[in-house]
């Protein structure tokens, strides 16, 4: 009976997407001993030849599974904890059918917020904040000192993050994090272990079909995929979704989130400004380049190739997301109304001044680099 309730709840939350199928439960024929559900025609996800014989691609189906899993883990928190090939079928219509709802788990809302924050800290290589995240994730007791954990995180993740997102392997990161967990008094909650199991099983299915497939790269594009899907989704409630986010951001417990917002706002503003200046410089006539480069053969911007590429990539991603929003059939600028309302509150003005101050300092530092006279050998500055 509980498994039937699980299936019904899972279907209500996730079968709203046309590429996900969850069987109905026939309650009139279900009892404590017998569960009767809709029959699903399909092929196990690890039977690649049988799937391709129907004109389907395994990786397309795996990607559906990844996107659905991210919705489960981060949007609603209720997730299928046993997604092995026997429990996921490819239907002849190209849908992904989920079966067997006996092993389900739920990620608490606080934990979902902490996981998202943990990923942000990981991308920013803020290992001290990552270590503190383990309190919010209930990995560590409040009296445990996280200072010794920071070097261990840095030693592993610095190497892992030197790869681009598309080159990262989820199993590698899980193994590296596991090595850190075993060294210190961590207590991993059951839901988190099931999350890791769920994602590694999906990655295993993807690697079975294509050894070069990267689950993390597919996950990275989640926001853009949601926006594309939102073009036809008339129930896309961005306006409603903004309100609780803004409430959390400006609330008494939102300081850590505000720090992240300020940091990311400064980074995005710098990327847009400097990226546009780089584009203008690259398209300028040669005599103009000579004037503004200040004698620097690499141009006026003291940036490494990696830093330049990352800045341009971030700028382009922001523009791409905005373009997707504006091209949506049901895009309505009124979704920004909650932001306008909140900006009138004193807390928002303080946050805005912090962002403006950070942007000003960052751009001023870049301008000083631009105006700095190059050092001539044998001379002093």
From TrEMBL:
Coiled coil: none annotated. InterPro entries: ABC1_dom (IPR004147), Kinase-like_dom_sf (IPR011009), UbiB_kinase (IPR050154). It comes from the Eukaryota. Residues 2-132 form the ABC1 atypical kinase-like domain. SUPFAM superfamilies: Protein kinase-like (PK-like). Pfam families: ABC1. PANTHER family: CHAPERONE-ACTIVITY OF BC1 COMPLEX CABC1 -RELATED, PROTEIN ACTIVITY OF BC1 COMPLEX KINASE 3, CHLOROPLASTIC. Belongs to the protein kinase superfamily. ADCK protein kinase family. This is ABC1 atypical kinase-like domain-containing protein. The lineage of its organism: Eukaryota, Viridiplantae, Streptophyta, Embryophyta, Tracheophyta.
């Amino acid at each position: 009976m509980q498994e039937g309730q699980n299936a019904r709840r899972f279907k209500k939350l996730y079968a709203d997407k046309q590429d996900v199928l969850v069987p109905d439960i026939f309650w009139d024929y279900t009892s404590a001993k017998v569960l009767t559900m809709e029959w699903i025609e399909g092929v196990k996800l690890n039977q690649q030849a049988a799937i391709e014989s129907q004109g389907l691609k395994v990786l397309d189906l795996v990607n559906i599974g990844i996107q659905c899993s991210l919705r489960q883990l981060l949007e609603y928190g209720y997730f299928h904890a046993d997604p092995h090939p026997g429990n996921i079928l490819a239907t002849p219509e190209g849908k992904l059918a989920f079966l067997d709802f006996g092993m389900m788990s739920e990620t608490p809302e606080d934990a979902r917020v902490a996981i998202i924050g943990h990923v942000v800290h990981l991308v920013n290589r803020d290992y001290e904040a990552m270590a503190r995240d383990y309190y919010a994730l209930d990995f560590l007791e409040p009296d445990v000192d996280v200072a010794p954990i920071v070097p261990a995180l840095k030693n592993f993740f610095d190497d892992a993050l030197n790869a681009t997102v598309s080159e990262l392997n989820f199993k590698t990161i899980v193994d590296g994090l596991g090595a850190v967990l075993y060294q210190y008094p961590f207590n991993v909650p059951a839901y988190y272990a099931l999350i890791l199991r769920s994602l590694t099983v999906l990655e295993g299915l993807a690697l079975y079909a294509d050894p070069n497939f990267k689950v993390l790269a597919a996950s990275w594009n989640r926001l853009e995929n949601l926006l594309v899907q939102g073009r036809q989704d008339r129930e896309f409630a961005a306006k409603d979704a903004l309100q609780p986010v803004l409430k959390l951001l400006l609330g008494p417990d939102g300081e850590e989130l505000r720090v992240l917002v300020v940091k990311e706002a400064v980074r995005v503003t710098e990327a847009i400004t400097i990226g546009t200046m780089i584009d203008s410089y690259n398209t300028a006539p040669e005599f103009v380049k000579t004037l503004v480069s200040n004698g620097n053969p690499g141009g006026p911007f003291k940036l490494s190739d990696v830093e330049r590429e990352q800045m341009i990539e971030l700028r382009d991603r922001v523009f791409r997301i905005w373009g997707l929003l504006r091209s949506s059939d049901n895009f309505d600028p009124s979704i920004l109304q909650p932001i306008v309302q909140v900006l009138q509150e004193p807390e928002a003005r303080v946050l805005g001044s912090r962002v403006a101050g950070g942007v000003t300092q960052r751009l001023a530092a870049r301008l000083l680099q631009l105006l700095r006279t190059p050092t001539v050998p044998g001379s002093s500055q």
